[in-house]
Amino acid sequence: MESRYNPASIELKWQQTWIEQGLYKTPTDTTQPKFYALSMFPYPSGSLHMGHVRNYTITDVIARLKRMQGYRVLHPMGWDAFGLPAENAAIDRGIPPAQWTDQNIAQMREQLQKLGFSIDWEREVATCSPDYYRWTQWIFLQFYQAGLAYQKEAAVNWDPIDQTVLANEQVDSEGRSWRSGAIVERKLLRQWFFKITDYAEELLQDLDQLPGWPERVKLMQANWIGKSVGVQLEFPVVGLTEKIAVFTTRPDTVYGVSYLVLAPEHPLVTQVTTPEQQPTVEAFIQAVAQQSEMDRTAEDKPKRGVPTGGKVVNPFNNQEIPIWIADYVLYEYGTGAVMGVPAHDVRDFAFAQQYGLPIKQVIVADDELDELTEAYTEPGIMVSSGPFSGEQSTLGKQKVIEYAEDEGYGEGRVQYRLRDWLISRQRYWGTPIPIIHCPDCGAVPVPETDLPVKLPENVEFSGRGLSPLAQVTDWLNLPCPRCGAPAQRETDTMDTFIDSSWYFLRYPDAQNSYQVFDPAITNDWMPVDQYVGGIEHAILHLLYSRFFTKVLRDYPVRNVPGHAAKSGLLTCDEPFQRLLTQGMVQGITYKNPVTGKYIPAAGVNEENPIDPNTGEILERFYEKMSKSKYNGVDPLEVMGKYGADTARMFILFKAPPEKDLEWDGADVEGQFRFLNRIWRLVEEFARDQSSPTVRSPKPLTKSEKDLRRALHTAIQAVTEDLAGNYQFNTAISEMMKLSNALTDSPCRQSWVYREGIEILLKLLAPFAPHITEELWANLGNSHSIHLQSWPDFDPEALVVDEITLVIQINGKTRGTIQAPAQADKDTLEQLATGSEIAQKHLEGKQIKKTIVVPGKLVNFVVPEGMS
To answer: How far apart are CA 212 and CA 579, in angstroms?
Structure first.
């Protein structure tokens, strides 16, 4: 054994040993209970950051704990490897996206291995590998055959200079292209969608099946789905046969409608616009086309609109009302039209005041009309509402819906904020959509035997023009598989969210080259028992993964032995049983409040933080680590100085996993010192090795009882901390207490002390796997500590058979004695009275009163001046 703790000499050794021994291969014995521990897989940027380290360390501790608790554990890792950065690298550096990505994967895999994660690398997947995206394409075809994939026109961000489609992240805050600087336009292109709205109600209702998810994540998903119960009303257009459909959750306000608003993209705009208004309307539409959806719907921006000159009839009162178009109405939401009720809607009130539109109050608080200075949005009494006047508005809603249905004005309806998922991307580095466009047959699925449709390699990247795939003619052109006529491949690739919406289903059967996965194998492991990732994925990734799981539960329809009904590939309704959203890792950040620029911490004096360039005083605060803020800490530097175990311990000890973590070098040093204390403690014990290796039948001494009580208290506390909410920080605190108890214990020659040393190492093993493995081996154990069982606590060891009884005279402590824990008041008084302490301090004094507090103290009250 080395005399000092040297992480560099032991960590690589054990990492290689674990690989050679296949220690973390996933067991195939299904007689054990299963546990699927999963971290959200990373984008291979090339370098780990501290957010990665925190995420994967949390999952690794859980996986190691569950193995020791007798579970067969699946703990895999992969790469969310398609995406824009690789394509940008191809443009900027002339490196093919596949080469850039493969280099980054290799680099990050090596970094992950240095942290000692217990990952089964034989199940590694990369979404950019044809072996993986072959099955992504196969899943697309299942969606297509089930009627869940379709094409329609939709707006995209269009760069008019480079003549190319831009992702949202390629448009800056001023609405300009990141590369050309041109003002980005909105342009309609034919694109692919997944019909997630078919599952909207189930996605909403099944949130109740997820008690292991944070409530705020479930609320975010519910709000994103956005269920609304109301009515769809139809307003006839004056002079035309068409009607404009409007959905509203406030049918009780229908008599207060004073205008109707269409989205500028609505197909009826051109028909309802009068010749006089046509130039104004066309100019407005062109201006709105240059706005992003976010800008159009932002709460803090004034709403703009223009009248079309057209009118509709409100069927409830036969009044004609004007038709406007406005930027805040989006065609993709609802019907693309809204009714304006300014008296009872905050946004409509502001819009009506801005453009001088009528404001008609139809709900009042107390049956009297008052002049409105703001929208009245509370329940009340319906007035000026025809046959519904005098009704309570909350009851009037349903009566208006029934009346509308009876009169043919509309029908009750449930509507969702959730829209169908636009999956088309006009980029190269993504999964090709397996569709062939034939002039005679239309859209034809690529035969499954022809999958994967591989990405061509002879591609030029310029960042200009349509998708690079459209320029590779020998890849683009082919015969139609149905009729043989000349046809062309679909040149859109899939949204990368699709790749990450099913990767967890591939891990259990990652090497299967014959099917997407063997249902028997994947259903054995699903659902994921513990999923760990950032709160930033609370909506889209998790929602899409839930959607995929439900679709693959229903399709492709197949006969399942033992099931009367047909079902799809999966048997679970939800993919992730428990979800932990870890907090951000924050670093000390310096910012010049005058220039707004961030300053690298390396060039700043902590005692006197000033801008080295301007001399201005800097702001100092904690913020999420990022390159742009110059506040990151390189995990490799920390591991190089302190070792992986110290990095892991700090990450786990500094804050509860769901809270943000503030990086502090002094606290890292503190965890390094703790591991050094563990090293010295076990080293001294191993050097001595004089304690018995088997339990002695002799009664325990008081010091042995005290140590055993501390030991089993730690087992109980750490086990409880690692159940449920995973309070790693308090678990480490308990191990520190146990370490102190062992250090202070006088019974080092006892079997209890040996038990304490061994159990301390077992408790610490999931947290600091390298040092515990080394120390375990140095104690003479031939089998890995990570194959040992998690210790059980002995309730009897927690029983206290003696207490320390305080002796007081007139409330002043004069000493302590040992007393039986179960002694009653009389016995405690007798023991205290007969003690040497009492004899000494009560000699010649009269006891006026004796106060006994069971389990704590005996207080003798004597006349003042005699104590």
So the answer is: 6
pLDDT tens by residue, 88-106: 888 888 889 999 999 999 9
pLDDT in tens, 48-66: 888 899 999 999 999 999 9
Question: Higher model confidence: residue 838 or residue 256?
Answer: 256
> Is residue 518 a contact partner of residue 507, using CB atoms and an 8 Å limit?
no
Q: How confident is the model at residue 535 (pLDDT cuts 50, 70, 90)?
A: confident
Both tokens assigned to 446: 């690529």
Percent helix, percent strand, percent coil in the chain, to nearest 5: 40, 20, 40
Q: How far is CA 721 from CA 404, 528, 657, 732, in A?
A: 58, 21, 12, 9
Average pLDDT of every residue of the chain:
91
> Alpha helices of 198-241 — where are they, by DSSP H?
200-205, 215-225
Q: Is the pLDDT of residue 727 over 90?
A: yes
Q: Checking DSSP bridges between strand 78-79 and strand 125-126, what pairing results, if any?
A: parallel
* pLDDT confidence bin for 564, thresholds 50/70/90: very low
Q: How far is CA 727 from CA 761, 789, 813, in A?
A: 19, 21, 38
Rounded to whole angstroms, the Cα distance separating 214 from 55 reads: 16
User: 227-236 and 243-248 as β-strands: parallel, antiparallel, unpaired?
Assistant: antiparallel
CB-facing half-sphere around the CA of 275: CA atoms within 13 A: 0
| Residues 538-560 pLDDT 10s | 888 999 999 999 999 999 875 55
> Which residue, chain included where needed, has tokens 């109301």?
230
Q: Torsions phi, psi of 164, nearest 5?
A: -145, 160
Band the pLDDT of 455: cuts 50, 70, 90: very high
CA–CA distances in Å: residue 423 to residues 331, 476, 789 = 18, 20, 47
**Bridge partner residues of 661 (DSSP):** 585
Residue 247, pLDDT above cutoff 70: yes
State yes or no: pLDDT of 565 exceeds 60. Answer: no
How close are the terminal C-alpha atoms of the chain, in Å? 58
Structure tokens at 208: 């109740």
Query: For 815-820, what is the mean pLDDT?
Result: 87
Dist. CA 843–CA 859, nearest whole Å: 15
DSSP label at residue 377: -
Q: Are strands 486-489 and 477-479 parallel, antiparallel or unpaired?
A: antiparallel
DSSP helix/strand/coil, 43: coil
Q: What DSSP assignment string belongs to 688-734?
A: H--S-SS---SPPPHHHHHHHHHHHHHHHHHHHHTSTT--HHHHHHH
Q: How far is CA 45 from CA 38, 107, 321, 748, in A?
A: 20, 9, 56, 51
Gap between the Cα atoms of 594 and 613, Å rounded: 12
| Three-state SS at 403 | helix
pLDDT digits (tens, 9 = 90+) for 273-300: 999 999 999 999 988 887 777 778 777 7
Record the tokens describing residue 97, joined without a space.
């996206």
Using only C-alpha atoms, the chain has a radius of gyration, in whole angstroms, of 35
Can you name the residues that pair with 59 across neighbouring β-strands? none
Interacting residues of 66 by C-beta distance below 8 A, sequence separation 6+: 35, 37, 73
| Neighbour count for residue 396 (Cβ, 10 Å) | 25
Q: Which two tokens stand for residue 525?
A: 């492991």
Provide the residue count of the chain. Answer: 867
